[in-house]
# Entry
Amino acid sequence: MHLVTPPLSGERFQVIYRINGSYDEAMAKAQDACIEQTVEFPADLLPAGDIPNHIIGRIEGVNKSFNDFNDITISYPVEDAGGDLVQLLNVIFGNTSIKPGIRVEKLILPTAILSKFQGPRFGRNGLRSLLKAPARPMLCSAIKPMGLTSEQFADQAFQFASGGIDIIKDDHGLADQPFSPFRERVARCAEAVQRANAKSGSHSIYMPSLGSRADQIIEKAYYAKSVGAGGFLVPPGLVGFDIMRVLADDNSLALPIMMHPSMIGSFVTCPTTGFSHYTLFGQLTRLAGADATIYPNWGGRFAFSREECISIAAGSQEDLGHIKPIFPTPGGGMTIDRIPEMLDVYGKDLIFLMGGGLHRIKPTLVESSAYFRNLVENM
Amino acid sequence: MHLVTPPLSGERFQVIYRINGSYDEAMAKAQDACIEQTVEFPADLLPAGDIPNHIIGRIEGVNKSFNDFNDITISYPVEDAGGDLVQLLNVIFGNTSIKPGIRVEKLILPTAILSKFQGPRFGRNGLRSLLKAPARPMLCSAIKPMGLTSEQFADQAFQFASGGIDIIKDDHGLADQPFSPFRERVARCAEAVQRANAKSGSHSIYMPSLGSRADQIIEKAYYAKSVGAGGFLVPPGLVGFDIMRVLADDNSLALPIMMHPSMIGSFVTCPTTGFSHYTLFGQLTRLAGADATIYPNWGGRFAFSREECISIAAGSQEDLGHIKPIFPTPGGGMTIDRIPEMLDVYGKDLIFLMGGGLHRIKPTLVESSAYFRNLVENM
# Structure
């Protein structure tokens, strides 16, 4: 009789998996996940006692969701997750990610798990205070295209800020390329935005992308802050979710973070693997400390549906204990004419992200930005 | 007329994308990727000159692959990739990951890209030298199940090493749980393997898992080395590919690395998104510095096909300039009776990974391990 030492608390967290196949097939896959996500060991060889009784996953409920899918809830002891995000992800969807026909639909996390995380430092209220935008939707744009010089990017950043864009971010493709090295670009763009703020009385911030070498992310973040950057764009698909948490938790940085979905698409584009939009862009992004979650709005250049986008907005605000709600930031081919429809669906707690589309409206970026800001403020 | 400063070298790397749909549909998706993966900007608004002529992707060829798929080769200037793995991945499959019906099939990387990477420190020859196994297939097993104490894991590790298992790794689910804290487990298991080596004259190594908080991975690696660990198990799906490269490149660590596929499955289980098995488990894993690539063999608990496994073995050794070939390490429900078939398919340049199956063969783990070793040596 093997008893786990120290004794387990008895507290468990739950994962709802959406599983393809008949009821019997789905139950077989769920029973398999109970083992695969924990002990990864033949059930008949487990030592009797706590391991088969408590350490392995336990099926808590089954709901027919639609057609060939069943939603099966599995619980795991909080101790399996070992107190950090990486191990939590490992238990949620480690080896099971390699099996077809199963995806993570929703996480149900007790205080014993949530208390391990600080979550977003700013969240919706904090970002609104920082940007002096107590109630209106906020605006974001990106300096682009790749291939311009840092001077040209700084000019764009100045115009965006002068026209009233709240958050001016690096296009996610900008890194440390020879035509615009990271340090040069960040210093120039941060300075340009501060100059525009001083001139116009606005409170815009510049967010460089930290899609960077693993051993340079923290150092680049500190550099960016030192030259006046006002936040960070972080692509967890490229650099991992937990480094975003490290940046968010760092009291010496203490700047807002936007999650960028580069390379993360494979986790959501296939309905029979990965994560639901709700969990990936909502729950996990909040646990990992982002204050805003960027995703492609329906009807743009990408293929997320209206319902998937609405589920992201739900995941960005639904109850997650003390973990703050964050801003849905739909983009990906947005244009001015979409604003009324988006406000109708999302309400005012969102950040409009318009990139290329902003270059078409008026002769200059400052005029286009001002037009965009005015339109959003008066709707 | 916008010229890029400094001027581009003219060297380009290629990505072969497998794209779903008719020829016309596939070409439209490819043209879209040429923009999306680089400038992410309306083509008609790009300043004339280098950006549309050279910075954006360029379609280099189309091959009908099978049924509804076309393989389309797109080239990008090496400068877009900015000299590091994170930005290279960003250009290969950043935003395009969010679009359905397109996956990365193969990378064709010129010296200008490959020279930025050291790749595996050991590779096949280096690992064979280290483990004093000049020609035979090597053996790997894992301490498990989660829920045992560090003392029990150390006893398993001692038995595995005494029986001739070359690499004894943490089960990937073992992290920093209360029932076996990381430092305690690593110290005990490393000591146990060294004790077994001293007694039996073998050269086994213990590899703890670094599926850990982003801000603790390097520190845990140094700790592990200081107490005698002989390598690292790294799950890039959980912690990012580039931190594996950082560990591999670190001359003060200088220990071999095995790639574990936890949470990476969503990139390969769906045939219309993500990466091919060849690229993910072969090319990217080598670029990121692993000396062995772990994946589920066909016919075990997972669903990779025989052909997919063979393509991983091909990706583990095919030409990648100075980047060394590495060991395919098929596991995931392997049993003794599979050995002849696996040797037939893979040849002797492989690591057999048997976990749970090893607990069934003989009354003790040391006997089972010795039986397994003997069987493999005499085939």
